[in-house]
Amino acid sequence: MSNKSDGIVDRLWDVFSSMKLGLVLLGLIALAAGIGTLIPQESADPKGAQAVAEIWRTLGFTDVYYASWFHFLLALLCTNLVVCNVQRFKKTYKLTFGLKPPRENSHIPQKINTTISGDNVEALRQKTEETLKKRGFHITQTEEGGTWRFIAQKRALGNWGSFITHIAFVILLLGALIGSLAGFKGYLLTGQGSVVSLQEITVHKGQVKENLAVKINSVEDRILPSRERDNWYTDLSILESGQEVLRDTISVNHPLTYKGITFYQFTYIPGAAFTIEMNGEKHPVTLQIGGGNYYIVPGTSLYLVLAAIDSEAQPPVVLYQVFDHFQEVKRGKLALGQSDNIQDIYTITFDEPAPFTGLHVKADPGVGVVWLGCGLLMLGLLLTFYWRPVRIAGILDTDGEPVLTIGAYSGKYKMGMKEEFDQIVAELRD
Q1: Which residues are CB-neighbours of 156 under 8 A, at least 6 positions away?
Q2: Which of 233, 270, 294, 425 has a CA between 20 and 30 Å from the CA of residue 412?
Q3: pLDDT score at 341
């Protein structure tokens, strides 16, 4: 029974240690990401995603990066990279810390190889050691039967470049998975002066667990004296248990983060605050321009929309419309503080401009892991391309005339290695 289990484990290990599997998985992930750029995604374009054929929505292509099958592909790729790195670790460790001098001349690299003759064994040996140490090499040597053998290496950390790069990809994948599984993405559109709990926002993905609220103190579409737009600004407060714990002003490209939740300025919509008086009772109402929201009078089929607003006029002016079953029954213009009677049912008063702010709200607990992966990726690439290890091995034969056979391990970088090797040989021959 155990032999059978061992056989299954070995076969699975062979499958996940395959470079071909890694390439296939990368191809599938790239294909899925490509499709995700062509098909509207729910998180960015909900209406466009709903217009896509049902088969694509069923397969999850309108929400590629949050689909369970996409997460499964990432998990498979992550497993493949981990297994490959486990296998690579032993070899990399040996190249860094376990190098042994060659036993015979045939074990010395043959592509970059030469012999150096000398008159004195000790002088040639000492010259070789001095030259290599001066150039930063760490020498491992043995002397047996009158034969001196050595292997020298510098920039040994360069051996870990590929290993660290692959580990970085694993960490990046883990960060992406953590962010998509444990975080959330939401949207908030509300007017100036409102208080909204995060539990009430529109959430595209994930679930809001934090018991926080946001108060919108003010919203501004700032225009420069040149009549060019400066930016959209939202002065907001973070409330915890009803108490303000943080207040700041955000704008496009200048978000606010609190306890891992980030608020991004996304849009700005002009609006106005009204007071509706009916049957002796007053109700505050805030409407956004263009019919983005409306007010239905209780007990009637009348609904009120804000058609336009001129906030820069002195005093500000609004244009409103009243509909009854999609039929316009009244429209009017109000300056700041003015009132109007609607169908002898209620009175509307324009109190003040009250713009709306649109915020993206996002929590991504995997972002720190992603930054760690990015740092390791940069380190791995730097070690791989700019800190390449150099290894030189040799045997000094004392039978007869002293002859040093020396060679350099070239790998894929023969030209750069050959240049340094020639310089070392030239110093030894001098």
Answers
A1: 95, 96, 138, 389
A2: 425
A3: 92
